[in-house]
Amino acid sequence: MATTMQRPSLRTRSVFSLCWHSSVWGGLAIIVAAAATISGSEVVEPQALIALVVLSIITELRPVVVPGKDSNGIVASYAFVFAIMYVYGLPAAVLTLALATLLSELYERRTAWKVLFNIGQHSLCLGVTWIVMVISRHTPSLQDPTVTFNADDVLWMPTTWAVFFLVNHLLIVGVSADTSMTFKEALREDLSYYILTLFAVLSLAPIIALVAVTVWPMLFLFLVPLWAVNKAASISQERDYASRHDMLTELPNRTMMRDELTEAIDIASRTGARVGVLLMDLNLFKEVNDTYGHAMGDRLLAMVAGRIKAQVRPGDLAARLGGDEFAVLLPGVEDHISAVRVAQRIRESISRPFTMDEVTVTIDVSIGIALYPDDGTQIDPLIQAADSAMYLAKRTGTRIEVVGIDRGDERG
């Protein structure tokens, strides 16, 4: 599950704070204990361990990203880390996953609190999972690694996957629950997807472990199917991006805007927040297109898109609906006045001259504004309200119109 939200306070009592501190400090204790246990130990069959560590890092750095799901991707490194735990024990697995996670987090340039949480959370999850192996009396180590597996191992191995998933999911949900959704809602979100993907990955661990203890050089053959899956996922992701974006301006298109508006309204209905919708139509664009040609018109649209993106707030969504129509989605906007301020910045930016190949053109924009839930509680009525306000602004020349507010009250 992605954890891309803004960080709530770590000092206040909350589910977020509890899960973060439990993960970080509990995980740190396990990492320190693992390092102390391994220090000075001789490794039996070190070649297989080195191969597993290398593969863990490679697959952690290159997750399989599935369109429309977790932006962090499906992490295949879990399979190799669990294989390490099955063959060499907990300390080697903990330190390997901590190192792989650290390198991945630094590569992604994530903030410090997320880096600490992810490293600690992984270590804590492995520590709890190890309890299952202790109960099953399967406790390998660097000095006494597992060299054979038998049919009885089929009984306890899936239990380790279930325990790891449960602890992992609860901790991630805990740091998500104090943001846009409740703990119960976060717990249920895409639950079947996370169960399916994690169990699919971890089901490879016994096979990887078996290869490691028999003919370890063949471990690197696992990279071939993983590369193929990653390549297929990349192609699918590119197609998904193309279906949800306007290729000329690289802005989200109408489909993505409606999807994001649906999600924003769903969140706002639970939190009591507002959602603003700005619909825009360029004035004088047709004249520029007819005078200078479609190529110049396309360049102008791309430049307009850049100016709109530069004026919206962090977390807002700018989209091109088609032709010379654009939209901006304002999740969490305070009121109509705040939405008008954004519209004014956009209009002032677009009204400045555009220079292309020594040709300078000037256009303007008409903007209609509607807010959820004030002006509509469903997507289509809300968009229709903003659309009506936009055409009123275009027809009357006011340039900015707000549903439910008399013209001139909030505009400059």
UniProtKB/TrEMBL annotation:
Residue ranges occupied by any GGDEF domain in the UniProt entry: 273-407
Residue ranges crossing the lipid bilayer per the database entry: 15-36, 78-103, 115-135, 155-175, 195-228
Keywords: Membrane, Transmembrane, Transmembrane helix
Pfam families, per database record: GGDEF (PF00990)
Entry protein name: Unannotated protein
Species lineage: unclassified sequences, metagenomes, ecological metagenomes
